[in-house]
Design brief:
Blueprint: H1 2-9, H2 13-50, H3 52-118, H4 123-146, H5 182-191, E1 196-200, E2 203-207
Antiparallel strand pairs: 1-2
Region (Disordered): 1-27, 140-195
Biased composition (Low complexity): 10-21, 169-187
Protein name: Poly(Hydroxyalcanoate) granule associated protein
Length: 214
């Protein structure tokens, strides 16, 4: 340690001068670099301010193109998802329809078997019976059309028995009207005299006059 201190103390003044010169050059270079950096920043700011409008317009164009691309992609994905959902729904509907048809067929077959066991004619039997009836009806129609219809027989009118007429007597002479008939009574009443009021002995009494026909 003592040797090192001695050697350090024994440095020449030339070494000190060279170290000072190096320090000055380093400080100068740092200062120049800082100035250049500041000038470059100022130039960049001025350029950005000058080209700010163009940069903004270019950014807007880039944003519009990006938005259109995003819309196209979203629409395509939406159509794809819609088609996929509709396809799944259609498949599910077809499966449900097929399953329902199968269930109906199985149910009809079981009902048909139960009816056959009970002795009730089935659909095939009814169809065969209907076809047979139609065939027989057609044969009867043809047979009736080939045979000429016989003319209807006319019934003779039977003579009516003569009615028994009562023997009426010859016209008898009319009798003269009786004096006691209603007409004669009415005429006599119309010709009858009215009663008379007669005073006899201070009293009044009614007296009928004699009829001239009496």
């Amino acid at each position: 340690m003592a040797k090192l201190k001695k050697t350090a103390n024994k440095k020449s003044p030339a070494a000190d001068a060279s170290s000072k010169a190096q320090a000055e050059r380093l400080g100068k270079s740092i200062t120049e670099s800082a100035q250049q950096i500041w000038l470059a920043g100022m130039g960049a700011f001025n350029r950005a301010q000058a080209e700010g409008g163009k940069l903004f317009e270019s950014l807007v164009r880039d944003g519009l193109s990006l938005e259109q691309t995003a819309r196209k992609f979203t629409g395509a994905r939406a159509d794809f998802v819609r088609d996929a959902v509709e396809g799944k729904v259609g498949q599910a509907r077809e499966r449900a329809t097929d399953t329902w048809d199968k269930l109906e067929k199985v149910f009809e077959e079981r009902v048909q078997r139960a009816l056959v066991k009970l002795g009730v004619p089935g659909r095939d039997d009814l169809n065969a019976l209907t076809a047979r009836v139609e065939r027989l009806t057609e044969e009867l129609r043809k047979a009736n059309g080939s045979a000429a219809p016989a003319p209807p027989r006319r019934r003779r009118a039977r003579p009516l028995p003569p009615r028994h007429r009562r023997n009426r007597p010859a016209s008898a002479p009319r009798r003269p009207p009786s004096r006691f008939s209603p007409k004669s009574r009415q005429s006599a009443a119309s010709l009858a005299p009215l009663p008379l009021r007669i005073r006899t002995g201070g009293r009044f009494a009614w007296q009928w006059p004699r009829s001239p026909c009496a």
